[in-house]
Amino acid sequence: MPTIAIVGAGPGLGSSLGKIFGRHSYDVALVSRSKDNLATLAAGLAEHGVIAEGFAADVADPASLTAALEAATARFGRIDVLEFSPYVGLVQVFPAEVIVDNLAPAIQEILHNTLADQGIYAGVVAVNAMISDNAPDGYPAIAPDSLAQHYWDLHTQRGQAELVLPA
Ligand SMILES: NC(=O)c1ccc[n+]([C@@H]2O[C@H](COP(=O)([O-])OP(=O)(O)OC[C@H]3O[C@@H](n4cnc5c(N)ncnc54)[C@H](OP(=O)(O)O)[C@@H]3O)[C@@H](O)[C@H]2O)c1
Q1: pLDDT digits (tens, 9 = 90+) for 31-66
Q2: 86 lines ligand 1 (CB under 6 A)
Q3: In order of start, what are the domains of the chain with their CATH numbers?
């Protein structure tokens, strides 16, 4: 079975990604800091018929992340898709405020082009909206299941280095 590792998996996007990739016969390795959260998430996905297992790690601790991904590889045999979206709060960057730390899109373009030569697709999704099914009136919002569908489309089409939502 192909496997997706969702790093920074939680009840919003993480759960929806687990559902859509699981529906397409992927096994799902869930990574976040809390074992309890991971157990709840894996149990929720199991109710949708998805084989999912949690591997606790803090992305701020590279050794723990490496250990978690190695454990996931040992459990599922392989990792085909790596998704990285730990929730660290809402951040907005305006053009006049660009600094080295927020140059991610430029780096992403280079990564995308470099890895394409090796048959690896790298894409980034910039979400300028709340991820929620129940956003307050007047807030730009995207439902987690709709967002996960965009990820699946990027994964299958493999063309776009960056997707900005809402369009
Ligand atoms: N929610 C929004 O409205 C919104 C809007 C725009 C963009 N985004 C971005 O979209 C992505 C998905 O957001 P979401 O709210 O749907 O998230 P989610 O998939 O519901 O959950 C993300 C998970 O990240 C985990 N996490 C946080 N810090 C971590 C760390 N240091 N190491 C490992 N795991 C960590 C948390 O679990 P633990 O506590 O168990 O570690 C959390 O449950 C995030 O990158 C977020 O920044 C969110």
Answers
A1: 999 999 999 999 999 999 999 999 999 998 999 999
A2: yes
A3: 1-89 (3.40.50.720), 93-167 (no CATH)
